[in-house]
Amino acid sequence: MANPSAVCNGHLHHHHHQKQNNLLKSGIYKKNGIIKGMKKNGISNGTLYKKTFIEHFEQAPMYVAVLTFLGFGVGTIFGYLRDFMRAWGLEKRNVAAEREQQKDFVPLYQDFENFYTRNLYMRIRDNWNRPICSVPGPQFDLMERVTDDYNWTFRFTGRTIKNVINMGSYNYLGFAETDVNALKTVTIELQKYGTGICSTRQEMGTLDKHVELEKLVAKFLDVEDAMVFGMGFATNSMNIPALVGKGCLILSDELNHTSLVLGARLSGATIRIFKHNNMQSLEKLLRDAIIYGQPRSRRAWRKIIILVEGIYSMEGSIVRLPEIVSLKKKYKAYLYLDEAHSIGAVGATGRGVVEYFGMSPDDVDVLMGTFTKSFGAAGGYIAGKKDLVDFLRTHSHSAVYATSMCPPVAEQIIRAMKCLMGLDGTTQGLQRVRQLGKNTRYFRRRLHEMGFIIYGNDDSPVVPLLLYMPGKIGAFARRMLEKNIGVVVVGFPATPITESRARFCVSAAHTREMLDTV
């Protein structure tokens, strides 16, 4: 097997020709960000990848970066000017101010901390938090709102904007639906159990529905056991502290989701960051961790755990799982895989990145995923070996303190999962997975042809389209809404300051006409 560190982001590093020759012999070579396994008689020849792996991270021309910084510079200068005018009473002060009696108090927050929100975000605030008044399917209805004071306050007009094409919701398989026949079982459970459980899993909150769902999740993922939680974000933030603690080392991808970051911080373990999807960076950290051990005492780390995501929700990139698994085995570390965006969305039958790369679920120590996206419900799961799940049933903060998942939500997940597995007697689930794949590749191809810079993997239903300039963020979203298309735009601090973007989420429920319109 080839040295996985020889394949890195976008380039081949070869210190001498020998390594290059070894790579060629072993069947891994790379060109334009594509990793391929050379085949002899159609059989992959000792490569980590069973299929071509194509990702795009095209750099913008230099003038775009210059104009972007210029845009932020102009915005900042005008921000200071307006703050000056507000201080001298030349402009109305819309932001909440401290009362005269409180002037001697220590301020709750520094005025400057709010500078960005007050002067830059406020100008384009109308593009976020828009209230929706229908199911977030392929199209939705939007409550119309206007502002009379440049986005400081909004008022509703009472009108609704109908049939806006929904390119923002994570409704990958189209299970966010209101079809009466589809929701029949959910309605029955709602009448039988009601909505709330009013207890935690360890007290009175474990229902037969939860047991049924956990068995189904374990069967779906082909693992020994699984445990479900009522909130997707908390699945990460409340369970990582139960698995690692002081004296442990967490190696985290630099683009990991906030829930993973929060979980890692709460655990009290030492955190080290590796460059996004970069195997050299990860291997260097692993090697250093084993050679040097803990700081000062130089004792060996109690545990080393690698935190990665299946699909990165802002980049649209897919984790390089085969290489990470080979590194994990080489250095005897644990692997925690967050499949929030990938479960249901990739893989021939929607079983996530493990299936996408043709690997075994046993290669991953902790499989985590959410039901909030592909399954159109709420909550999350952790799956793996029975010992792991039994440990979490006792020690997870979520199991001990958080209210259980409500029964109708559990039934919605069971319904969607059975549909995916074909247990409902139809091939509808498989059709949805295939339709999502077709829609994703079509949409990405069309955007490429139009000359846009888009990030990520060709098979990822998260499609970030780079806008760069701060002024474009608002302009793009407003223009799209005029054309009856709802899209999420993202800027700093959720992305690097120079990489503002619009993010499209493709769904199996989108028709070809809808995608063409977009």
Mean pLDDT: 89
Enter the CATH topology name of the largest domain. Aspartate Aminotransferase, domain 2
Total domain units: 2
Regions with little confidence, pLDDT below 50 for 5+ residues? 1-46
User: Which secondary-structure class do the elements indicate?
Assistant: alpha/beta
Give the overall shape, derived from the CA principal axes: globular
CATH architecture of the largest domain: 3-Layer(aba) Sandwich
Task: Return the CATH class of the largest domain.
Answer: Alpha Beta
Instruction: Output the radius of gyration.
Output: 25 Å
End-to-end distance, in Å?
44 Å
Strand content: 15-25%
Binned, the helix content reads 25-40%
The major pleated sheet works out as: 7 strands, mixed
How are the strands ordered across the major sheet? Answer: 8-14-13-12-11-9-10
Can you identify the CATH superfamily of the largest domain? Type I PLP-dependent aspartate aminotransferase-like (Major domain)
- What is the number of helical segments per DSSP (H or I, 4+ residues)? 17
| Number of extended strands | 19
Membrane topology: Single-pass membrane protein
Family: Belongs to the class-II pyridoxal-phosphate-dependent aminotransferase family.
Keywords: Acyltransferase, Endoplasmic reticulum, Lipid metabolism, Membrane, Pyridoxal phosphate, Sphingolipid metabolism, Transferase, Transmembrane, Transmembrane helix
Subcellular location: Endoplasmic reticulum membrane
What secondary-structure arrangement, pairings included, does this model have?
Blueprint: H1 17-26, E1 28-31, E2 34-37, E3 39-40, E4 43-44, E5 53-56, H2 62-87, H3 115-119, E6 139-146, E7 155-166, H4 184-193, H5 208-221, E8 225-229, H6 232-237, H7 240-243, E9 249-253, H8 258-267, E10 270-274, H9 279-292, E11 304-309, H10 321-331, E12 334-338, H11 352-356, E13 366-370, E14 380-384, H12 386-395, H13 397-401, H14 407-421, H15 428-449, E15 456-457, E16 462-468, H16 470-482, E17 485-486, E18 488-490, E19 500-505, H17 512-517
Parallel strand pairs: 7-17, 9-10, 9-11, 11-12, 12-13
Antiparallel strand pairs: 1-2, 2-5, 3-4, 5-15, 6-7, 8-14, 13-14, 16-19, 18-19
